[in-house]
Amino acid sequence: MREREPEFRFAAEEHHVPVWDLGVRFFHWALVILVTAAVVTIKMDKLNLHVWCGYGVLGLLIFRILWGFIGGTHARFASFIAGPGKVFAYMKGMFSREGHESGLGHNPMGALSVLAMMLVLLFQAVSGLFTNDEDFAFEGPLYKWAGNSLSTTLTSLHRLNQWAIYILVALHILAILFYAVYHRDNLVKPMLNGYRKVTGRASEEMQASRHGNTALAVVLLAIAAAVVYFLVNAVKLTGGN
Ligand code: HEM
Ligand code: HEM
Predict the structure, then answer these.
(1) Quick check: 1 pLDDT over 50?
(2) In angstroms, what is the span from residue 45 Cα to ligand 2's centroid?
(3) Which one, of 236, 212, 231, lies nearest residue 19 by Cα?
(4) Which residues contact ligand 1 via a Cβ below 6 A?
(5) Which of 4, 50, 123, 229 has its CA 20 to 30 A from that of 32?
(6) What is the mean pLDDT of residues 89-97?
(7) Whose CA is nearest to atom 16 of ligand 2?
(8) Residue to mutate (ligand 2; options 131, 132, 161; most atoms within 8 A of CB)
(9) For residues 175 and 191, what is the distance between their CA atoms, to the nearest angstrom?
(10) Exposed/middle/buried for 185, CB within 10 Å: 0-12, 13-18, 19+?
């Protein structure tokens, strides 16, 4: 008769599951650098540099939106966008240490905050295209499409929206600290090396998890850069001056 395999062999099994592919990691850390640089440069009155950082953020966001459809398993929006039912269920169990399962990719709450951050940053970058500085020494590349009055409104909203960015980024960093301290779950490491270490039996979800194709990510980055180039030059290209 065959002997049964002892349970502890499964319990000790360790898996390195691919979670954040190079596309997501590049997007994330480049976003951190460029958003920080956009804020620092404008506070130092370096408008030219500020605008370039803004274009960079816009390009990254366009890339991330495309990557959300054809990137790796956990990069896809379909894998992490959750309805209110799942979000509330997750919130209820958030403080329980025993039953806590943070999952492989974004948890339902994390997904919500990530989407909110992407939306406010997209608004910031797009509104930037229509801005003017108060004395009209600078006009954003799409200023002419908006006209004086709408441009001035969008500039005010652009200034106001900075507070939404600060609040969401602060909550984001606090949430990561909370996971590290309360749940002893280091979320930063997978955002650096791409893999999540999981012990125990490999679930179907773990086995199905894949990183996206890096060559495809490079092509999408080039497409995103081209879209930004056309947006920035759209007034000229469509016969404006
Ligand atoms: C300007 C500051 C920051 C912004 C705008 C930002 C934005 C974001 C965004 C948009 C995502 C989603 C990534 C994706 O799905 O593509 C994300 C995830 C993440 N960020 Fe940040 N981030 C910032 C700062 C930081 C810092 C300083 C850290 C580390 C200390 C960090 C650690 C992480 C981690 C670990 C995740 C993955 C969370 C998870 O496992 O669900 N972020 N961040
Ligand atoms: C997501 C990227 C961006 C971020 C995070 C950002 C952030 C900011 C912040 C925080 C301010 C307010 C500064 C203050 O209150 O003193 C500001 C103002 C401004 N930004 Fe941006 N911005 C971004 C993109 C852009 C882009 C793409 C453009 C233009 C193409 C732009 C043009 C301006 C202008 C003209 C002002 C107003 C300057 C003034 O008041 O005279 N920004 N931005």
Answers:
(1) no
(2) 10
(3) 212
(4) 24, 27-28, 31-32, 35-36, 64, 106, 110, 114, 117-118, 169, 172-173, 176, 187-188, 191
(5) 229
(6) 82
(7) 43
(8) 131
(9) 15
(10) middle
Whole-angstrom distance, CA of residue 176 vs CA of residue 131: 34
Residue nearest to atom 35 of ligand 1 (CA): 188
The dihedral built from the CA positions of residue 48, 52, 55 and 60, taken in this order, carries a sign that is negative
Residue 209 pLDDT exceeds 70: yes
Tell me how far the alpha carbon of residue 75 is from its chain's centroid.
10
Give the chain's domains with CATH numbers.
8-237 (1.20.950)
pLDDT at residue 199, rounded to an integer: 83
How many other C-beta atoms can be found within 10 angstroms of the C-beta atom of residue 226? 12
Place of tokens 């030219």: 48
| Amino acid 3: pLDDT | 54
pTM of the model: 0.93
